[in-house]
Amino acid sequence: ADVKKIAVIAGDGIGPEVVAEAEKVLKRTEELFGYQFETEHALFGGIAIDEKGTPLPEETLKVCQSADAVLLGAVGGPKWDNNSKELRPETGLLGIRKALGLFSNIRPAFIFDCLKEASTLKPEVLEGTDLIVVRELTGGIYFGEKFRRETANGQEAVDTCAYNVTEIERIARQAFEIAQTRRKKLASVDKANVLETSRLWRETVNRIAADYPDVELEHVLVDNCAMQLLRRPSSFDVIVTENMFGDILSDEAAMLTGSIGMLASASLGEGAFGLYEPVHGSAPDIAGQGISNPIATILSVALMFRLTFGYHEAADSIERAVKEVLDAGHRTGDIAVDKSTAIGTLAMGQLIVDAM
Amino acid sequence: ADVKKIAVIAGDGIGPEVVAEAEKVLKRTEELFGYQFETEHALFGGIAIDEKGTPLPEETLKVCQSADAVLLGAVGGPKWDNNSKELRPETGLLGIRKALGLFSNIRPAFIFDCLKEASTLKPEVLEGTDLIVVRELTGGIYFGEKFRRETANGQEAVDTCAYNVTEIERIARQAFEIAQTRRKKLASVDKANVLETSRLWRETVNRIAADYPDVELEHVLVDNCAMQLLRRPSSFDVIVTENMFGDILSDEAAMLTGSIGMLASASLGEGAFGLYEPVHGSAPDIAGQGISNPIATILSVALMFRLTFGYHEAADSIERAVKEVLDAGHRTGDIAVDKSTAIGTLAMGQLIVDAM
Ligand SMILES: CC(C)[C@H](C(=O)O)[C@@H](O)C(=O)O
Ligand SMILES: CC(C)[C@H](C(=O)O)[C@@H](O)C(=O)O
């Protein structure tokens, strides 16, 4: 039989709680659809620093490399915030992206009908918002040379932002291809009026565009995009941009939907392999209380089914189950209007498993 | 008598129209308060490219350097968008900031009571929003070395982001000092979990903070800030950040107030000298129709009075006049709910002059 190997990285904070519910969904999928999953747990982030002295142990990387996909909870927390660079969870995150060749981060942002009111934007502005931010994930200023030097004006710190044509081409193609499966609109975001990397970005995207004549391409300056996301969120379909801009804009886009506790993300490379994780963080303030919302992690499993395994029917089943449970009025604390009626992590997970 | 010299740069698009109304306000101030202004016009941006072959002619720089303050309309437009770098309006903008030592861009973002409904955010979320973004303006990736080179992966483009301690200190001090005149809260925005420049930024801001014990300092990561501006805009007082982040966040902040046609900005250096301009751009689509909103430019004059000349009474008079005219229901097209009742640029300017 075709056994799919999934590396499971619970991570820090609420990571373990929400991942546990997602694993129940995996189990239920095996029962309902006859698929087979083999999960292997690995240490990563803060807990790996504590137990192994490094955020990304060799062993963890091996587990991921021999898997078909990775399910990640969340990493980080104040405990490790003042560590030196090599001993910080974020360093592990950058390391795993690079080591696994995950050059593309896919962040869908859309409105859950029943959560429309949760946004700080007016419902009529949000109406119809359904976009995907495709963020370049292994290039740019995150990975360029960094150093300090002494100058006449005191210490100077330097970060280098670099992009080559190959890096831009592969992410651009992926974005065009995603747009082809959707409303066929692509917004490429850059700061071409100032940055050389952005000018190369824009030239390259324009050249690649010739291969996707059915996709309508617009170029948007990053500052303008930060505004347009607020003014006309529903007009965006797919947004493609470089690493740093993508970090900022994907979080802005997620927040404006009001559904940040519900959004999944995928980090992809050249093949079907992918790393899937909720958009929300490790929320150390509520960790261990059993009140966190497992939906984004459960929906990350659905995204894994779609993008890595092609198990669309199973993905549908999960997404339908989530919708059903929400429509029935069940809420965890983060999305409950009346907090006194909120249910816990376990209860929410069970309801979704039962509804599949 | 103390004659103040003001360099007036009308620029492109709607620039000349809105600047003309602001000049009427200058005249009216002379009559009402006995001040004396000497204005000198200079070419800058697209029009300077057309007439002088460069966005920032030597002559224009001289006019600015011999002035006490600069009033700028707006520059740029599609006509010059595909020019080579040296022949683009933006290059003039970066050049003038550097040449005049304007290392700090002050962008107040607040809600006009009568325009609350213009925002895409819910009024109850916006309630009380009144913040200032202090953006570093002559350092970082905008001004670092830029080049291309050939690699095995095709052409590579490189931008360099650098900050030294002196640059960070002076902008940090300015932000702390502004915070002291307000609600005494400063949010310093960086990406210290990834960037070396951000780590130096944070260290330096923390050190400077010791001199301002009355100001409450928080550090916010740039991606998180993009979210928090949407979630809790009214909780921010002063935000200080580096050039690129400031570009993005100040536009996001302006847009969320719904008052972008109304917001003024100041670019300052070491002394009282400053360059004042509306936050909105050159709006080439409506240029020459006499329908643009002159309020942001008129309020830029008020900001000039406050920050460069210390003419607080005259600034009050302008700001009160604007409020009075708006409260009386007068609107230009951009802010009118019922567009059929909108008045033009000239009429709005005259109403404000009359109300002073
Ligand atoms: C933790 C940090 C390094 C990371 C990033 O900026 O990439 C995070 O913000 C994210 O978006 O996944
Ligand atoms: C035109 C551009 C160079 C400029 C900038 O990014 O600084 C503009 O966006 C601004 O914010 O004044």
TrEMBL record, chains A, B:
InterPro entries listed in its UniProt record: IsoCit/isopropylmalate_DH_CS, IsoPropMal-DH-like_dom, Isopropylmalate_DH
Cofactor: Mn(2+); Mg(2+)
Annotated PROSITE patterns: IDH_IMDH
Site (Important for catalysis): 142, 191
Entry annotated with the keyword Cell cycle: no
Chief location: cytoplasm
Pathway per the UniProt entry: Amino-acid biosynthesis; L-leucine biosynthesis; L-leucine from 3-methyl-2-oxobutanoate: step 3/4
Positions that bind NAD(+): 77-90
Keyword DNA repair: no
EC number: 1.1.1.85
Entry's localization field: Cytoplasm
One Pfam family hit: Iso_dh
Subunit (UniProt): Homodimer.
Record-given protein name: 3-isopropylmalate dehydrogenase
Organism: Paenibacillus pectinilyticus
Gene name per UniProt: leuB
